Amino acid sequence: MTGARPDVAVTGIGLVTPAGTGREATWDGVCAGRPTARHVPELKGLPVDFACLVPDFSPRDHVPGSRPWQYDRFTQFALHAALEAVSDAGLDPADWDGDRVAVVFGSSAGGTGTMLDQHRKLLELGTARVSPLLLPMFLPNMATGQLTIHLRARGPALCTVTACASGATAIGTALQLLRSGACDIAVAGASDAVVQPLWVTGFDRMGALSRRGDDPRAASRPFDTARDGFVMAEGGAALVLEPASAARARGRPGYALLAGYGASSDAHHPVAPDPESKGAALAVRRALDDAGARPADVQHINAHGTSTPLNDAAEARLIRRLFPHQPSVTSVKGTLGHLLGAAGAVEAAITALSVAHGRVPPVANLEKQEGDAEINAVTGTSRAQPVDLALSHSFGFGGHNAVLAFRSCPTEPAREPAAPSP
């Protein structure tokens, strides 16, 4: 591709989250604001014994091929989400030019479930019981690798690892590949499956997790004065990105245009956000500049909103400072928990759906905000709202910041939304 920078459309979305398997199940769940946290038997006995898990996910039913057991759970999520997104876009890997298809997928940790299980076997049973599939199942890039095989995609294939910003970084990187002419189609997203005793204990020892074990469904409460930490979750999301002109030529309406991407680093602390949000503000400004927009143009923000005291306070003050006109704000972590590396991809997908359907999901469990950090958060029920420009914030350990800007498609009608539950 040469010439002017093309508009890039989101033409397909696939989701696997604690609200359910599939795009419609997740959209219905977040619009209804139904919290998904529950006690997890495998975590019994730990100080934190609850999380948000993908319900009723059967590898045999939801993963292609006859041997789904050969993939770690994070790869299973990636495969299902990506194949749903490609089908949703009206594309078929049997028909496209695989040389011109890129795959960019993120993960915070890769197949740690496999790694922990195989390490246990090594210690208890010896080397002969360690699976020869250990590395193909565990390595973080293997979701990307397996996707390229199933999608017959021979273009650029990358794995992004920027902690909880991994999914947004993947989508932003895919946007840059499309603009550069390195590919004609990109499948981008992220997946994670790290709800395991070691990870939960590690986050708890840091003081990052909610201890509201007597009422798990009320534990994840972004921006609420009673928040005490995040709730771990698992899942994945994939977006199909392509030039808007190509999508229109084949009669496919886009959910939204991916108009801008901004990235930065806090350069402040390994795990704590900069209380002045200088790095996050830089990422927001870069995303807006990339989209050719001003802060006053933003009508909606899908916040990182982790339900931790430090992150929510810093992000709320950032929003108040940069957007005094008070755009609507949501954080779906109240419903879904924190999907770690997959969070940014899931939230990008939800933001694109909000643009397409003119509906903003509520922040579950938000009852009272801090007076000096109050934002225009959607609470209670979803809000009908036309959205022409929206931002999706993602901030990760290590000071990684990634912000995506979505615009409405100017000439295409929005797709018929799945009706949210009452």
Automatic annotation (TrEMBL):
UniProt feature coiled coil, ranges: none
Pfam family for this entry, one: ketoacyl-synt
GO MF, one annotated term: 3-oxoacyl-[acyl-carrier-protein] synthase activity
Keywords: Acyltransferase, Transferase
Domain (Ketosynthase family 3 (KS3)): residue spans on this chain: 5-408
GO biological process: fatty acid biosynthetic process; fatty acid elongation
Signal peptide: none
Family recorded in the similarity comment: Belongs to the thiolase-like superfamily. Beta-ketoacyl-ACP synthases family.
Protein name: 3-oxoacyl-[acyl-carrier-protein] synthase II
Gene symbol of the encoding locus: fabF2
